[in-house]
Amino acid sequence: MNVTLTGATGLIGARIVRALQARGDAVTVLSRDPERARAALGDIEAHAWQPLHEPAPSAALSGRDAVVHLAGESVAQRWTDASRRAIRESREIGTRNLISGIAPADPRPRALISASAVGYYGPRGDEPIAEAATSWPRSAWRGSARRPGLPSTGCAWPTCEPA
Prior knowledge:
The structure is a single chain. By secondary structure, the chain is α/β, with parallel strands linked by helices. The chain is built from 4 helices and 8 strands, in the order βαβαββαββαββ. A 6-stranded parallel beta sheet has the order 3-2-1-4-5-7. The longest helix has 22 residues, at 81-102. It is globular.
């Protein structure tokens, strides 16, 4: 398979890259810092992309079997008003800019996996809580790929890897 990932140097993304490479898939990553991505991930095709400022490069998305979108501001930080805004904007704007890069891709990727996370929001009584109603998961469905998917991950903790 030919797969493009965003967020490839993050906690989940780096493990996905290794797993895809181990099974022989061709992996391309979109990164704010392609040199840092290559240093962290080894010999990999890396394209520059500033997700808050520009559409994703269509050349890195055209003809892919899948695009896995994991990029976003880390949630592992103190949640201030500013960090909440940065987290939300990184997902809304980043997803919108990824879709803007996919739109002119020819052929468009066969699948888009745009990940999110589950969370605990405290006691809410009868108040409905639905992350799927937020703007960034919805934007991943709009004409992005033939098969969009929106997985929600639970808690992801780093572990020691065997030597």
